[in-house]
Design a protein that fits this description.
The structure is a homodimer of 182-residue chains. Chain A is an alpha/beta fold and 182 residues long. Chain A is built from seven helices and seven strands.
């Protein structure tokens, strides 16, 4: 499991073995039920116990604005900002030829179909600034541009950081991505 | 001195006391000479041993593009990118009403005069994303807009970072600062 090394694993295992038998049963059942009940939203592919997730169902969300993320963790990070009022589409990963992950393994065709059907006004690509993120952004932009306006989130200096300590690539991106002030 | 706590200070002091007397003389002289010789470029206020610094003197640098930074450390960080080919203007700090630092204590009037005289085509504000940096950027943009195009570097996700671990304010800025892909 991510973040659990051999020592933590041993500590957790010994803790579980010390618990009363009925607690372990309850825990095991909770795991099985969670796995059984939590599926994917059939619209945006975010984790959801129902066919349509809370965000897609919410009439207050702006359906004209669609934000594309790699996975549900990124969606939750954007939700924490409480600033974004549109809906999402969860790709389920990033295109990575090195790892044999092509667009057909991701929710790409469902994205194009959805943008076309819903007449989405703008798609915001919110993918990590990495080789895979950039590849996926460029691929999706080319695919979606016939249907809608495509934008990507800004890459540059994180808020609260010092220019002096920023790495060269980030500074280069921040210079390239400069915006007119008006 | 920055980064030197009491224990490091003691170690350095004891090291210096163990050195031969002539080495200490040479070191002291080097300090006095450096302080005496290194002044400011009269054009951009970067550190310089001469009236005009190496960057301002360089005919290969694009004089139409002027990047405004808070201090020489930020200038050196941007130089490390090897991407920026314009010239600089070093403010000598940021506007901070809390600390009693107003524009009159910074190289602001020299900046406006320079942009006006040199008919600079674009000024890029490269200030840290903080309250002081934002205040200074807005102030300078208002001041310079009658003379030239004003832009600011991008604030958003640093390259190589994970969306999931970005703080809310950075993500909000990255969303607000999104750019059309075309």
């Amino acid at each position: 499991m991510p973040g659990i090394g051999p020592r933590t694993a041993q500590r957790l295992a010994l803790y579980l073995l010390r618990q009363p038998e009925e607690r372990i049963h309850a825990f095991a059942n909770a795991l099985v039920n969670a796995r059984k009940q939590v599926g994917q939203c059939q619209k945006c592919f975010h984790l959801s116990a129902e066919a349509e997730c809370e965000i897609c169902k919410n009439p207050a969300r702006n359906k004209d604005l669609l934000c594309v993320v790699a996975d549900s963790r990124d969606l939750l990070a954007l939700e924490r900002t409480r600033e974004y009022k549109g809906v999402y589409h969860v790709l389920g990963g990033l295109i990575s030829p090195m790892d044999g992950i092509g667009p057909e393994l991701l929710q790409v065709s469902t994205l194009v179909k959805r943008v076309d059907n819903d007449e989405t006004k703008e798609v915001i690509l919110a993918l990590t600034p990495s080789v895979e993120g950039d590849t996926t952004s460029l691929y999706l932009a080319r695919l979606l541009r016939p249907f809608t306006k495509v934008s990507r989130i800004a890459y540059g200096l994180p808020v609260g950081s010092e220019l002096e300590y920023a790495d060269e690539v980030t500074l280069t991106r921040a210079l390239e991505g400069r915006r007119a002030m008006d």
